[in-house]
């Protein structure tokens, strides 16, 4: 745990660029709401958290309840006036010497990055430290851009069409560590944007630079730093997260016939020797045990597939347990059942038409065709 550090988690924005009328933080990424990722990250690091809520705060709090998230202080931002204002209203909660500030829409961020930033911040006795990256998308105004001019840092919160892109050194991704003393002295000096009429936290970087304060940066891969401001960015982030999940399980003995169109939720657990065929959806808190086979385009949610079970293609299994060695034939739905044995069918001639089931293997008890 980083010592003498507390976190401010910003979760009160309106998500206007999503164009859905809903908070983006309630959207799921690999089966888990976006806001849950940074909360769990900070809790794993044992960093005390104060979360600022605003738009659709009731839904954010409901998500926390459903995930049994506790020991998180919350402060409501009645009027959404930007990230700077959101941090300012938490002032009474500041009780550590260093304040970590993190946006709620960075679900791919890791503990290693935050620890690296903290280590550099402490080692250099910095007033303000922040995570940087590089984006090749010049037209993307989702990130504030750092411009070096006359050995000073200028912050471009929204893209200025006249800005010389060659002068841009990096982007700020929305993760900062600041001395509490610096924050207390300068948080009220933020100016209101003439464009949005909001107060933006990155302006503190420019203030620190102009006053000759100690500034430290920690560069990271853009994929880790990706924020989510649009549905297109949500799609990209979920694709990366899903690739991370599949890669993890491949390294732990799970074989995938094709990874392109397989969907695996974050909380799914596999044991070694499992084989997953193309197009399978394995969701919720499903557990797939040793040497089981999951057929192509099958759908499994909140279920347990025991060792050596074989789930044929185009099968739906919901809130059920499939026992060892059981074979579930294609085009079968199993819901709220515990199937222990397969029923062996007597040998019979193959029909001249396709029935949706493979006749040379057992059919599970009490299942019914779709």
From TrEMBL:
<dbReference type="GO" id="GO:0003977">
    <property type="term" value="F:UDP-N-acetylglucosamine diphosphorylase activity"/>
</dbReference>
<dbReference type="InterPro" id="IPR029044">
    <property type="entry name" value="Nucleotide-diphossugar_trans"/>
</dbReference>
<comment type="similarity">
    <text>In the N-terminal section; belongs to the N-acetylglucosamine-1-phosphate uridyltransferase family.</text>
</comment>
<protein>
    <recommendedName>
        <fullName>MobA-like NTP transferase domain-containing protein</fullName>
    </recommendedName>
</protein>
<comment type="similarity">
    <text>In the C-terminal section; belongs to the transferase hexapeptide repeat family.</text>
</comment>
<keyword id="KW-0548">Nucleotidyltransferase</keyword>
<feature type="domain" description="MobA-like NTP transferase">
    <location>
        <begin position="7"/>
        <end position="133"/>
    </location>
</feature>
<keyword id="KW-0012">Acyltransferase</keyword>
<dbReference type="Pfam" id="PF12804">
    <property type="entry name" value="NTP_transf_3"/>
</dbReference>
<comment type="function">
    <text>Catalyzes the last two sequential reactions in the de novo biosynthetic pathway for UDP-N-acetylglucosamine (UDP-GlcNAc). The C-terminal domain catalyzes the transfer of acetyl group from acetyl coenzyme A to glucosamine-1-phosphate (GlcN-1-P) to produce N-acetylglucosamine-1-phosphate (GlcNAc-1-P), which is converted into UDP-GlcNAc by the transfer of uridine 5-monophosphate (from uridine 5-triphosphate), a reaction catalyzed by the N-terminal domain.</text>
</comment>
<dbReference type="InterPro" id="IPR050065">
    <property type="entry name" value="GlmU-like"/>
</dbReference>
<dbReference type="InterPro" id="IPR025877">
    <property type="entry name" value="MobA-like_NTP_Trfase"/>
</dbReference>
<keyword id="KW-0808">Transferase</keyword>
<dbReference type="GO" id="GO:0019134">
    <property type="term" value="F:glucosamine-1-phosphate N-acetyltransferase activity"/>
</dbReference>
